[in-house]
Amino acid sequence: MRQPGLSRVTRLLGLAALGTTTAGCLPAPATEEAREVAALYTGFLVLSVLVGLLVFGLATFAVVRYRGRDDGSLPPQTHGNLKLEALWTALPVLTVLVLFGLTLVVLSRIEARAAQPATDLRVEAFRWGWTFRYPNEGIVVFGAGEPGPEVVVPIREPVRITVTAVDVNHAFFVPRFLFKKDAIPGRENVFEINVQEPGAYRGQCAEFCGVYHAFMPFTIHAVPRPEYEAWLAQQPREGAEASALLGSPLASPGTDASSSPSDPGQPLDSAP
Amino acid sequence: MSATGIAVRAAAPRTSALTWLATTDHKRVGILYGTAAFGFFLFGGLLALFMRAELVQPGQQIVDEQTYNQLFTMHGTIMMLLFGTPMVAAFANFLVPLQVGAADMVFPRLNALSFWLFLFGGLVVMSGYLAAGGPADTGWTAYPPNSELQYSTTTGTDLWIVGLGLTGVATILGAVNFVATIYTRRAPGMSMLRVPMFCWTILVTSILILFSFPALTAALVMLLLDRRFGASFFIPAEGGDPLLWQHLFWFFGHPEVYILALPFFGILSEVIPVFSRKPLFGYRAMAFATVLIGAYSMSVWAHHMFTTGGINLPFFAITSFLIAVPTGIKIFNWLATMIRGRLTFPTPMLFATGFIYLFVIGGITGVIVASPPIDFHFQDTYFVVAHLHNVLVGGSVFAVFSGIYFWFPKAFGRRLSERLGKLHFWSWVVGFIVTFLPQYQLGADGMPRRYVDYPANTGWPELNAISSAGSLLLGLGMLPFLLAVVLAFRRPPDQPDDPWGGNSLEWWTSSPPPHHNFRSLPPIRSERPVWDARVAASEAGRAHASRAERAGDEAGPGRPAGPG
């Protein structure tokens, strides 16, 4: 809004039109689970548009067709119509039952658990940052504020994530995963992701947690397993080096600068 | 009746401040409630404008993080509990005795107490601005542990707890009065199936209040004990459970959403038939749908907690889906009332029609977030912000304005300017769309709510700028309304008893009605006694005219007959 030139105004207007007509387009889903959710959402959206058009159509028909004919005559005093009313009770019931069925199918798929996921990741949220632990490998990645901690997971295999919090409620939210889970002190919430696309995925806290709630991002890099293992091998083991708790996990050349946190979805370019 | 009305009006006006302070007249209590609630509304709206100003572009410009957190905490608290809920009480106080043909509420003094408790409770909440640490900073949902003393150190949070406790008691007292009045003070002939639809919605709303507000009171007391008296209900390290708060809060909070919706459905059910010149389509189905929504609304609370990992997802998904059905019935019945009617569009009907269009979008997006897998993405993003404002602004607030324009002549004997009303309406329709539709896209993109700042991702600065521009239009749109009120009071009261051609009993008495409301009542044989009386009068007139014609008398009553 600094220089309201004509082009900027047109662009704003165009975006306004876009924002009002396409309101609700999801980010490209990056995990197997997210693809299920995106498909479900598309189904909901189609039905929503149909229902919306029906109601908008009826309302507009009523307003246009029956407005202002003030000739003093009385319209027919209809008090109701049982058949019509039964119809517009039954149709919504059927619609929501269908939506519920689809919901159950997708819910059971995204909540399915692998027998033995190779990667276990434990996430602890705190005011205002995150601690990621790889318990099997004894690796800890810690970070607060911008740009936040950066961790690596393998693609195309299940990764089990356990979230909790040490002080107040937070929520683990990665928009490209179309998923969030609350991090609540005293509770452990477990879920699995199976990232399909390699890339750097920015996450953030989604549950209001106090003064700097808006400033606790993190980044998850999804890479093929060999690169993941190479990254693991480079990490200091817990207790080996105190400074490891504070440093960036991606300090090795070739991986650090390439992934700007404000640029989600950009693939991690080269193996170290 | 008009003659008696004028006589009483001439005797009544002793409008010194003291008579207002000491009043137990339900109409005055209603006007006091409405005025106070509207004052809170203007203040809460101002807070929203500050938030939108901060979010115009990425980076921080106007307020710091803590101030921003206090802005949205107070905005949400004020709009839900110091504007929305008391606005329901305002309409209900003014209308329920008039619509059921009673002289006053069953417990007039309890009614006055309810208003003053609400006002002082609201002022206690607001007095947080005088505290050293400022007002509450926990979000209006105040989830512990973040709302525990260790993390929310301002005394403003304690004032928030105590103030809301007081307003909660006020709301409960009001609800007792509404239930008792509707059950026991109906005029002879008014069976429950002849009660105006607005009173039906108030009856169900009041029962919801009686079930849900005690849960809030309990939760507030527990939080205060945690903060100041060493209890640990919500502190996990000491054996407490943060999720307990969420259950209690939403066990209140979701019925609360319907407490802020049902009465406004009721206003629409009064306004639309009048300006369609038809009876409400499917009166019984509407009453039944109201009861059904009330019942369902007690069993959907945990859909606010889908991402906590602590609830049964399918159960709360199906109840949340199903509540869309009675809501849909209402919308279809309103449309069927309009179809084949004789529609006119003065300002009350404009806002009612705007409600139907905008509320439907909010209803549909509500079904979308009722699906847990989809909610896992949308929860706590701007999609939810857009959805809730869609139902509460595009829905409830539009209905509030519809009701104010509709009953203003009855309450004050003066009419609000139609021209300013239209300006108000269109600036709010455009302002609403420009403000909130972009927020759906922001939420889909993953922008979380309650963020003082956001990264400059593709499209985010633009969408936020658009949304802020819309909010400015909403703010400016209040000016014609305020001007219309000021102008109305600069003229003497000139409104007839029934300026719109109304249906229910409040249109039978004078505008404004006398103390104790009625000198006479028409026979009540349907849910539209005043309409029936008008039809009977015009038929009598016609019969008289035709008798006169047959007798060759040319001086028969020449007034064009016909209801409306």
Q: Can you describe this structure?
A:
The complex is a heterodimer of chains A (272) and B (564). Chain A has 272 residues and is α+β, with helices and mostly antiparallel strands. Chain A has helices at 6-21, 32-66, 82-110, 225-234; strands at 119-126, 129-134, 139-144, 150-154, 159-165, 170-174, 179-183, 189-193, 199-205, 218-223. Chain A has a five-stranded mixed β-sheet, with no helix packed on it. A five-stranded mixed β-sheet of chain A has the order 4-10-9-6-7, covered by helices on one side. In chain A, helix 2 packs antiparallel against helix 3. The longest helix of chain A has 35 residues, at 32-66. Chain A starts with 5 loop residues before the first helix and ends in a 38-residue tail after the last helix. Residues 1-5 and 240-272 of chain A have low confidence and may be disordered. With 564 residues, chain B is an all-alpha fold. Chain B is globular.
Key structural traits:
heterodimer, A: 272 residues, alpha+beta, five-stranded mixed β-sheet, 4 helices, elongated, disordered C terminus, B: 564 residues, mainly alpha, Cytochrome C Oxidase, Chain A, 18 helices, 0% strand, disordered N terminus
